[in-house]
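Bench log. Compound arrived from synthesis this morning; before running ITC I wanted a structural hypothesis for how adenosine-5'-triphosphate sits in the protein. Inputs:
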Amino acid sequence: MSETQRKSPSSQEPSSPVPQGERSDGQGTDNKMSKRSSMKQMKKKPEDFLFGKVIGEGSYSTVFLVKEVSTGKEYAMKVLEKRFIIKEHKTEYVHREKEVFAMINHPFFVRMYFTFQDMDRLYFCLSYARRGELFEYLNKMGSFSLEQTRFYTAEIVSALEHLHGKGIIHRDLKPENILFGDNMHIQITDFGSAKIIKREVQNNTNEDSNAGRRRNSFVGTAQYVSPEVLTSKTTYCSSDLWALGCIIYQLLGGLTPFRGRHEYEIFQKIVKVDYAFPEGFDPDARDLVDKLIQLDPTKRIGCEEEGGYGPLKTHSFLKGIKWDDLINQKPPLEPLNKNRDNDNLYKDLKPGYDEMHISQLLCKVEVDDKTDCMHEESFDNMMTEQEHSELIEKQKRENIYHKFVENHLVLKQGLVDKKRGLFSRRRMMLLTEGPHLYYVDPVNMVLKGQIPWSRELRPEAKNFHIFYVHTPKRTYYLDDPDGYALEWVKSIQEVWDRYFGTPKVVKK
Ligand code: ATP
């Protein structure tokens, strides 16, 4: 019996969510003969790979950076637990994601090379988008320049043209699902929510009846979801064009166009198309966004009814784009993780999905995410406990912001303008013991968030007004209207020294 004829334990499972090992060569699903022969040659198993580290966690999967033993090539291995998929009734999503990956053949999408399974898990072997998510870049940089926005808009348009040409709607287009490959070109991923319309027209699959049953849920992410999905639960290719409009707005402006305290408020604004442009928004970009964020899905630039992709690609904002040559152009964005060296990851590893090793990798993610250890004892002796509690009591009585700081002593506070792209928000910033950097909306008296502390946090003054707080995931742009930026930086640095600086050695 040949290897492909022999039944594996997993292929005997009646509820197996995807077929046993096969290769997606990115050539579509038509060529069955060549596919079968490549299956024979290319059938893979976990033991063919070294599992280096966890690079992402989705709702139903864990994504690992792996190295193929025979070729030394790195891939992103998306691993799904069968039991969990079946329990959560996500079998259909998994099938669809695999099917869509197999249909796509375009450089601006993550590529699926192989799929295989064992008794417990499904494995999707994907191209590794080494440079991270667009979301991280936006977080770090606040917003993109006009040139960067134009270039990446063009890449997303080019990708969507391919996708829609194949009859596929992504339905969850957002900066988290737009990754960057080695050379900073985009690689769109996550087809768990995708819909294949051509197949549905032909086969009238049960997907619509499923959607009917899930009346109160929507597919996508609140900020990018189109009004028709909310009101009639119908998606069109142009629902992705709506999301594109939201993304262009966010790239240039720094925030999404529809914002609110909770999803319901965001949805209310979306169905009313209630959004505004910040001052300084480029007029050509504004015109394009306006033409994409249209209530009527048949009126969005780029949709079939509006003449397809031609008018979108020749819009004045995208003037000068060389559409046939995008992949060969140098993207106007530098990688954030330039020096990331993965060579040491695989040292002394045994190939395969070894439970012990995997749980170590998963623990490592949790530890990495936690705030660094802090040595509080290093400044314990600065004041007595009695003095400390007296100060807290005074703060409770006199400081209206006390309720936001979780009973921590405020070390410095003041109004600053927190900037993000073209937006600016006035906040009361509270630097406290802990350490914490809380920021509160002083008009509505609502805590808006905290700047996360870690050893990597670094304050930097630009001038008397503007200062930055750099954190691993984001740089906060702050403007002290009174011109005390240097004082802020000094105070934050002092607190850093207290908690993270080298503890003093006391000589006896
Ligand atoms: P969701 O909860 O959004 O549905 P999911 O279960 O579909 O997630 P993915 O979005 O595919 O999982 O992957 C989770 C994370 O893993 C991504 O946000 C990304 O950071 C990382 N990731 C996924 N695929 C790749 C890849 N090919 N290269 C690099 N990183 C990846």
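What the model suggests: DSSP finds 15 helices and 17 strands in the chain. Residues 55-61, 63, 76, 78, 110, 126-129, 133, 176, 179, 189-190, 192 surround adenosine-5'-triphosphate (CB under 6 Å).
ITC booked for Thursday regardless.
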